Amino acid sequence: MLVFYYGTSFFQQVGLTNPFLISMITTAVNVASTPISFWTIEKLGRRTLLIYGAIGMLICEFIIAIVGTVDPGSKAAGYCLIIFTCIYIFFFASTWGPAAWVVIGEIFPLPIRAKGVALSTASNWFWNFVIGYITPYMVDKDKGNLGSKVFFVWGATCTLCVVFAYLMVPETKGLSLEQVDCMLAETTPRTSVKWMPSSTYADSSEKKTLSSLNHEHLEHTNV
């Protein structure tokens, strides 16, 4: 998200010409990449998408940081920044950008779902504010002056995303909200991919229908 908040000023600080045009390119990549998640989130699953999306993002972040530190201000470093920023945005827009919101909507038990989604949304925008507020102090020349080195920080946060997704995010693909509750009670996030529901929505509907028919039959018999 910081690429969209401070992209123009950051690209200008590291010596790139026409930073506004580059920001427009990164925005176009974001818009074009997001619809890919409509297919991948059901094909690959939430957990897989988050893990591999974060791995792709951290690789891009560290490449930008290393090249920008070893050869600062060079044309090669500039091209590297543009190319891998676009690749980073592709990974974010097609994985964490939409998938995180899907997981938030599916993961909380029914009694606390509204509060859980509300707190998750508030937390997201709180940390957006914090990171957006401190970033100028990290990259401005009269303050932290990290330049491309700031991508080491963002790469480290993406590494934490991989660890978090692997240890804490269960796979909820193809499950109803009730089945997600059962899955969380019976398995762990790391083994959730192999979990299979003991009953399906169709089974429960059939049972309700049979129960209703039996009840009507008993009432008719008693009459």
What is the level-2 CATH architecture name?
Up-down Bundle
Order of SSEs: HHHHHHHHHH
Poorly predicted tracts of residues? none
Average pLDDT taken over every residue: 82
Ends distance: 68 Å
Radius of gyration from CA coordinates: 23 Å
Helical residues, percent: over 70%
CATH superfamily: MFS general substrate transporter like domains
From the 3D structure, determine the CATH topology.
Growth Hormone, Chain: A
Number of strands: 0
Gross morphology:
elongated
Q: How many distinct domains?
A: 1
Proportion in β-strands: under 5%
Number of helical segments with 4 or more residues: 10
The major beta sheet can be summarized as: none
The CATH class is identified as Mainly Alpha
Structural class: mainly alpha
What does this structure look like?
- The chain has 223 residues and is mostly helical.
- The protein has one domain: Growth Hormone, Chain: A (Up-down Bundle).
- Helix content is 76%, strand content 0%.
- The protein is built from ten helices and no strands.
- It has helices spanning 2-13, 19-33, 36-43, 46-70, 75-94, 96-107, 113-139, 150-168, 177-186, 201-222.
- It starts with a helix and ends with a helix.
Helix and strand layout, with pairings?
Blueprint: H1 2-13, H2 19-33, H3 36-43, H4 46-70, H5 75-94, H6 96-107, H7 113-139, H8 150-168, H9 177-186, H10 201-222
Helix pairs in contact: 1-2, 1-7, 2-5, 4-5, 4-6, 4-8, 5-6, 6-7
Tag the structure with descriptive keywords.
single chain; 223 residues; mainly alpha; 76% helix
Short description:
This protein is mainly alpha-helical and 223 residues long. 76% of the residues lie in helices and 0% in strands.
